[in-house]
Amino acid sequence: MATTLCLFILLFVQLAFAQRQDDDLMSFVTLPEIRALKFEITHHDRDRASPGYWFVAPYGMIDPEAPTRQYLQYQVGPYIYDQDGVLIWAGSPMFGNRNTFDFKAVNNLDGRQYLSLIAQRTFNDDIPGGGIILNQHYEVESQIFKLENTWEFNVHEFKVLDGGQSALACVYQSKVLDLADVGRPGDQRLFLTGGFAELDLATGAPLFQWDSADHLGIHETDRFHTWDEPMGEWGYDSVHMNAVDKNAYGDYIISMRFTDTIYMISGVDGRVMWRLGGRESNFVQDFVFSKQHDVKFVKSNGTHHVISFLNNAADEITTDETVSSAMLVLLDTTAYPMTATLIARLPRPDGQLSRLRGNVQILPNDNVFVGWSEQGYQSEFSPEGHVLMTARFSSDRFSTYRAYKYEFKGRPRTPPDLVASVYGTNDEDLTTIFHVSWNGATDVARWYFYGQGYDGGAPVLVGNVTKTDFETMYVGHGFLDWVSVAAIDHDGNVMGTSAVHRTKTPDDWKAAGYAGSFNGPSPINPSTTYSVGKDQDSHSQSGMASGDTQEVLAALSQAYEVVRGLGSLLILILFLSSIIGIALGAYWVLRRRRQVQSYRHVPSEESFPMEEARLQTNSED
Ligand SMILES: *[C@@H]1O[C@H](CO)[C@@H](O)[C@H](O)[C@H]1NC(C)=O
Ligand SMILES: *[C@@H]1O[C@H](CO)[C@@H](O)[C@H](O)[C@H]1NC(C)=O
Asked: Using CA atoms, how far apart are residues 92 and 97, in angstroms rounded to an integer?
């Protein structure tokens, strides 16, 4: 009796818990395997926001997750959303739930639209990590993998350069270095050195390669102490290279988190042309920064540069300022000494620190889009620094390394997904419910819904609805057996059509409440019921007009929500009464056994606070 009660309670607690855990994820009838993250969004000045979509790559753990720990439905990977948080593309299935990084649109290749991203290796290394370029049909155009003697395709950066001949990537290598530079000649240790490569996109071969071990001193870092333990089997992660860009003059700008320094590297001979920040800055500067990410050229004419970067100002160990900020800085390398002048400092709107990761993007209208990384927090600023928008994932279980905003035209090759089912209690009130979505398609304005009397019959337009969400529902009158949909753009053109689907019928019509013939109703022939131009507005012609049906359905759905609410209350009541039951039961059991087991605290990895757990598991930020 007590056991049954316990099981009963467990079941309900689990159900209630599952429900709560679910609220921050989207779910779709057409793509049940996709559970995309929801956003919480605040628009402060919608009119001044730049046009475009958000590009994010949520992950739960930054390292590849063991398959046994991975949540089976699709969540992590590349995603596109519009500015209302409406899902546009879920790329997770394409990458099998692998982590992806630096996901963005690429418009500098040949006038056509592309996407680029880093797909992380799998846990078992059966699929290597790499930099991948997709076309606007979400097909792989090209991909390159890690260089020889490197550990993996580094997750920090994959920047396709103008024309698409080459791309920049960060490169980490394990090398034994002599500690002479820090006063211990002859003492040799293994280091995880950081650098970058410009890679030929066609062959993957390095066109230019640079490594910190050849150009920087070990003393530049604040992260190497001889008494420290190395970072795993790869050695001391002493510089932590995390960003690279190239200007039209062929020189590279790079960021190293553990030296608090931005370096300019000559594209001719790899020498360090100058250092900004850190212990050996070559600039007279009117600002400070540290633990920075994502340095990029905004403008550069060879001697004068405007650069952008995220001044995290803190990391897992140190806190240098109270708030992280996006920075725009003007560098004059003709002055003596060289000068670095702050143009803009955009503090994180919630006043917090991004201790790890993040990025800054200057949009075409000079708005600034900033990814603050943790929990997908992101914001858009006007050029004057006004906060126009802030958003974050509803779920605190996910982050994105970087977040971007781009205009993009997605044209999937796969047809729209359609699911239709029929409901009703008698032949007069039968309705066919359509659910349609088209993963990755931008610019769909309306959906047209069709029925046909038989396979191969002429499709008859039974209705149309404005697309407002990723998935769109439409209620058609009558049992439409053969159905299809067409996506219509803003000019009324057909963008694509679904396959013709059969409508799902209940397994058991009687059990589903249908009072007519035992075998269920017969489908209608839409060409007689929905004939074109025949009294479109007359309700009597087609029974219940679809507008009314939509209202009835909305009312039903509201009623369902109320019932669900009542359900939760019921669960609570059951739960509370069960607790009392358990307490009584437990007392009874304990009394019978007269043997009390001592309480043991079993620490588990899950019990670490977020930041600590992350420190344990990753080195990739
Ligand atoms: C670069 O820009 C600066 C500031 O606008 C200007 O003074 C300088 O002459 C420019 N140099 C070249 C080589 O165009
Ligand atoms: C689309 O639906 C509306 C009613 O919702 C209707 O007035 C209009 O004629 C329909 N358009 C087409 C092309 O059928």
From this structure: 5
Give me ligand 2 centre to Cα 464, in Å: 6
Round to whole Å and give the CA distance between 566 and 527: 44
- Asked if residue 452 lies in contact with residue 460, where contact means CB atoms within 8 angstroms, the answer is yes
Distance 332 CA to ligand 1 centre (A): 9
pLDDT band at 527 (very low <50, low <70, confident <90, very high): confident
> How buried is 334 (Cβ within 10 angstroms: 0-12 exposed, 13-18 middle, 19+ buried)?
exposed
Domains contained in the chain, number: 1
Phi-psi region of 602 (alpha: psi -120 to 50; beta: other; left: phi over 0): beta
Say if 152 falls within a structural domain: yes
- Distance (Å, whole) CA 299 – CA 125: 39
Domain interval for residue 150:
146-281
Q: How far apart are alpha carbons 555 and 244 in whole angstroms?
A: 55
**Against a cut of 0.70, is the pTM above it?**
yes
Longest CA span, the chain:
95
- CA dist 503 to 414, 420, 478, 606, Å? 20, 5, 12, 45
Q: Which has more confidence, 21 or 71?
A: 21
Which token pair is 81? 């959303």
Question: Does any domain span residue 256?
Answer: yes
Out of 303, 330, 334, mutate this one to test ligand 1's pocket (max ligand atoms within 8 Å of CB): namely 303
